[in-house]
Amino acid sequence: MARERKFSIDELFHETNQLLLKHGYDGFTFGLLADSLNVSRGALYKYFENKDELLTNFIFYEMDQFLLKLKQIDDQQGFEAQFDFLLQLIFSHVDIQKLIKIAQQIPGNEEKFGKLHFDMYQYLQGFIELGKQEGKLKSTIPNALILGYIFQSVAIPNHFDIPTSVWVSSIKEIIRHGMFTNT
Amino acid sequence: MARERKFSIDELFHETNQLLLKHGYDGFTFGLLADSLNVSRGALYKYFENKDELLTNFIFYEMDQFLLKLKQIDDQQGFEAQFDFLLQLIFSHVDIQKLIKIAQQIPGNEEKFGKLHFDMYQYLQGFIELGKQEGKLKSTIPNALILGYIFQSVAIPNHFDIPTSVWVSSIKEIIRHGMFTNT
Amino acid sequence: MARERKFSIDELFHETNQLLLKHGYDGFTFGLLADSLNVSRGALYKYFENKDELLTNFIFYEMDQFLLKLKQIDDQQGFEAQFDFLLQLIFSHVDIQKLIKIAQQIPGNEEKFGKLHFDMYQYLQGFIELGKQEGKLKSTIPNALILGYIFQSVAIPNHFDIPTSVWVSSIKEIIRHGMFTNT
Amino acid sequence: MARERKFSIDELFHETNQLLLKHGYDGFTFGLLADSLNVSRGALYKYFENKDELLTNFIFYEMDQFLLKLKQIDDQQGFEAQFDFLLQLIFSHVDIQKLIKIAQQIPGNEEKFGKLHFDMYQYLQGFIELGKQEGKLKSTIPNALILGYIFQSVAIPNHFDIPTSVWVSSIKEIIRHGMFTNT
DNA sequence: GATGAATGAGAATTCATTCAT
DNA sequence: TATGAATGAATTCTCATTCAT
């Protein structure tokens, strides 16, 4: 009965993603988004009361998607398989880390997203424990650091355009056995 | 007979540092800085044509300071000593990484700062080469990744407040020999 | 076979009344009204071309209702009875005064409502004349002031919550014989 | 040293007064005011953080001016003189009543201005008491109503342009001895 | 008749920047 | 040099109103 929508929430989220990564939290504006979608600013306010609500919703949505996939780590048999799964997942969702950082800038959500981050870590406790039980992971290293390290590795800027395969396998090697030889 | 300056560039840079880290690129304003220094906005424009020029100058200055110290790595004898020196330096200049990220947001400076980052890496080529010559560093890992990894490690958020000494020594261990056992 | 109306004009006017008194002319919006009636904004535009038309219609309607009752003043025998009737009527329609003030804010209706106000006064000429003929009302006081005074008395804010009966009888006393003693 | 001001706070308040009375609380905008003063909107924000702060300040200022004059009522000898003084004052500050009503619309100031109104009444307790002591004012009428009535009388709209002198003396007559004859 | 989308104009507010003194 | 004023552009947000279904 009503007029047909000029854009879907999916499209809106898609554009939001692009613009957010490109311009950052402060640089992202309703004007930018409206232009991307070829709609008026006002139209966006029908769906989200303000910028922060939009971004909060969007990032929660993305995080949920990511956590859903992360959950599948439990389907992998053995620590090594889980490790590979995790790295592959992280590398195919590079932007999630950036979004999380952006999320932390949204005023009023500090705890909310702090918690989310925390949850994600919690989520991987099983994986860590398994690694330590299997004697694969060094028991002396704090769990938080292990996870932090793995997640962080995705953020190392590849300024020199080293081929992805080399890059990724090197990272795995460092994570596993470090950059020092055993001599 | 000139009127005495109400503030020195040192003070200006010091406040800039504080405010920039606290509020980020967009959040940093001349108003904020002027208030911190108890001067008028207008006065700041006598020294820097605009916000971006100020920030560019400031970050270059900081980077120079850092590079100066980094240069001292050559005074260290042997790769192991240089490695320790580098890590200690990075951990005592945590904010440099943040400033670099901020620098990348300044429009028109993309390459400029890309280059600076690049230079810093260049700077450490000697260190890397030494490590590989001494047979300490795995020769298969790209130099850029080695440095990237080392620098990045400082940015892993210690959400669970693990004591610094444990944190740092664990990081060193991972960098050296990874998080996997050798079994 | 037409779809049944989801709301009657009576309901619409009733809600308009509430909202108008609560939020004032500027604060009253179609959105507010639509929500109260559980209809869409758009639906309201089927009945009234715009906000001002709605409010104009509504206030005219209310005024008509009020004038209808006011007309009954002629049924009262004698000036004293008419006086009591009038006061009782005014006190039981406190909001009419507010609506009239609001009406004066509607752009383009200045004269229209000026006239309406005027008419109401005209309406009570008979009452005034009777009072003066009966020698009850001081002939020196302009008719407009007599009516203005009576109507205005309803608008005195009772900040200290003096009981209505005391309040009203005191007002009557002032209107009749003033607040000064006769000494 | 700095540029000369294009407008003074006095001019600003003067224009505010005009515009506020003409357009009401909602209708009053910084744009309107800026235009009146031939300045940019932005300039106004140097003096007042926002519309409400401006209006609050302005109205407080006006009220203070008024209360200052009101205080002089104590210089008048005897109740009759005070009564005349009060009426003359009120009639020469017709707009104060309107401003007070507007003040009540400013969100967050409800109590603040409620109190101010209250204070003004308190201020006149002495006058009322004197009137009752001298046996001039009917002791049965609540003080609040006496004052309310006096203040309110200024607000009766003189739609028919009755000459001020007649209007005012008639009002005084009604206040003193009512509109009824003594028969 | 009714809906819900979309528009577009206007208002508040913030700042980088310019300018007269 | 420094000041404090003023500007103007950008941004957020709110509605009255229009429109396709």
From TrEMBL, chains A, B, C, D:
UniProt keyword terms in alphabetical order: DNA-binding, Repressor
Domain HTH tetR-type: 6-66
UniProt xrefs under InterPro entries: Homeodomain-like_sf, HTH-type_Tx_Regulator, HTH_TetR
Record-annotated DNA-binding residue ranges: 29-48
Keyword S-adenosyl-L-methionine attached: no
Superkingdom to which the source organism belongs: Bacteria
Name of the protein described by the UniProt record: TetR/AcrR family transcriptional regulator
Organism: Bacillus salipaludis
